[in-house]
Amino acid sequence: MGWSWKSTVACNTCDIIDVSIRSKYLNTKHLKEIDEGYFTHFLCASYYSLRLLILSLGVLIHAFIPWVFWNNLCEGLDSIQKHIKERTTK
Fold first, then answer.
1. Which is nearest to 74 in space by CA: 55, 88, 47?
2. Of 58, 57, 49, which is closest to residue 80 (Cα–Cα)?
3. What is the CA radius of gyration of the chain?
4. Which of 15, 28, 41, 75 is deepest in the core (most CB within 10 A)?
5. Contact (CB, 8 A) for 54 and 79
């Protein structure tokens, strides 16, 4: 018989993994669930992304120079978490 791409892709495990990935990462009702429009959600998600990028750069600098940015990560994450809670409990 030999090896066949179709036989390996069509296994039950792959189907289970595919379904679990879709259910974990795709939620087409997310905007309705949080009662937000696309553009507002885009702006907020972009804001969080940029904040996290800046925080991660600060932590990287902190890794090399431990006496700088020693508390920025905790304060930054607390700030983001507070902002998310305020948005979701309108």
1. 55
2. 49
3. 21
4. 41
5. no
Output the tens digit of pLDDT for each of the chain's 90 residues.
444 444 444 455 455 455 566 667 788 888 898 888 999 999 999 999 999 999 999 999 999 999 998 888 889 999 999 988 888 776
Which residue, among 52, 47, 50, has the nearest Cα to 72 in the 3D structure? Answer: 52
Residue 64's alpha-carbon distances to 1, 58, 83, in angstroms, are: 56, 10, 30
Amino acid at position 44, single letter: C
- The tokens for 47 are 């804001």
77 vs 75: CA distance, rounded Å: 6
Q: What is the pTM of this model?
A: 0.64
| Size (the chain), residues | 90
Nearby residues of 83 by Cβ (< 8 Å), 6 or more positions away: none
DSSP-derived secondary structure for 52-73: HHHHHHHHHHHHHSTTSSTTHH
